[in-house]
Design goal:
This protein is α+β, with helices and mostly antiparallel strands. It has three helices and five strands, in the order E-E-E-E-H-H-H-E. The chain has a single domain, classed as Coenzyme PQQ synthesis protein D (PqqD) (Arc Repressor Mutant, subunit A).
């Protein structure tokens, strides 16, 4: 697993999308199946629009979750995106 640069611009890979069924668990649908999104996973993926950089995503999450430590947010976002990249669900990182 390689590091993700702050100027990377993550986006969902082709064939991947978030579930849109009201009242059900947040899921990321990928060609091989589905991944359950827990915690802030959905917020992170909503920000991975192919326009925002990793740095901008972390800044926005730091504002949204102002009681959390910014360095912890950055570490967790990078780890989350790296896992998704390794599963082929995220590109641009």
């Amino acid at each position: 697993m390689s590091a993700i640069a702050n100027d990377s611009v993550p986006r969902l890979s082709r064939g991947c999308r978030m579930s849109a069924v009201e009242g059900q668990e947040d899921m990321l649908l990928i060609p091989e199946g589905a991944l359950r999104l827990k915690g802030p996973g959905r917020f992170i993926l909503e920000l991975c629009d192919g326009e925002r950089t990793l740095r901008q995503i972390v800044e926005e999450l730091t504002q949204r979750f102002d009681d959390a430590d910014a360095s912890v947010i950055e570490t967790e976002v990078v780890a989350f995106l790296a896992r998704l990249r390794d599963r082929g669900a995220i590109e641009g990182v």
